[in-house]
Amino acid sequence: KNEVEQSPQNLTAQEGEFITINCSYSVGISALHWLQQHPGGGIVSLFMLSSGKKKHGRLIATINIQEKHSSLHITASHPRDSAVYICAAPTGGGADGLTFGKGTHLIIQP
Amino acid sequence: AAGVIQSPRHLIKEKRETATLKCYPIPRHDTVYWYQQGPGQDPQFLISFYEKMQSDKGSIPDRFSAQQFSDYHSELNMSSLELGDSALYFCASSLLNGDIQYFGAGTRLSVL
Q: d(Cα A58, Cα B5) in Å, to the nearest integer?
């Protein structure tokens, strides 16, 4: 089973700061997922990436398949970015159910 | 755009009762995944279906069963409910097996 580790577990920053969340996994995978979960519980898929970098608005995700490491960056952070950010990898290294990291609780203060 | 629909949104049951959760994937999505998220825990993968066949199996208890129907909607059947089954149950769907997963809002099950 894939082991997914995230850091930091908690992060508090000021509005406008550049945010980085890191994720590492133990088993080689086809693609890694970044998700966002808000206090109400809803989960939103942010990215699925298998190589290089993807960008969506102020969010950037990068992955290094050889090093089994991915990062999620938030530029010009805003209080509405406050949420739990989760990286998730295919459970068996294949393409099915996901194993979730413990999540990073991000708080952006005005 | 249509999203993943889960019903009911909230469900309260007594111990030893049964519960059925439903998931309607995004149109044209052929793969459905079920996850369980206990209080303060990260989601755990239960089971997935691709083209109406079970595709992958995670930590789903034997008391639970699931299936995907001809219209691609899926149902998670839970029997002999226990207090520890109280959790948020998410369904996700993807266009292809292994593609990006889109999550429903979840069903919050409380077992009393």
A: 28
Show pLDDT as tens, one digit a residue, over chain B (112 residues).
679 999 999 999 999 999 999 999 999 999 999 999 999 899 999 999 988 999 888 889 999 999 999 999 999 999 999 999 999 999 999 987 778 899 999 999 999 9
| Contact criterion met (CB below 8 Å) for A29 and A93 | yes
- Chains A and B form CB pairs within 8 A to the count of 64
Cβ contacts of A42 on chain B, cutoff 8 Å: 103, 105-106
Mind listing the pLDDT tens digit for each residue in A53-110?
999 999 999 999 889 999 999 999 999 999 999 999 887 644 478 999 999 999 999 9
Instruction: Assess B42–A contact: CB distance below 8 Å, yes or no.
Output: yes
Interface with B, mutate which of A3, A10, A96, A99 (most B CBs under 10 A): A96
Alpha carbon separation from A16 to A76, B66, B111 (Å, rounded): 4, 45, 43
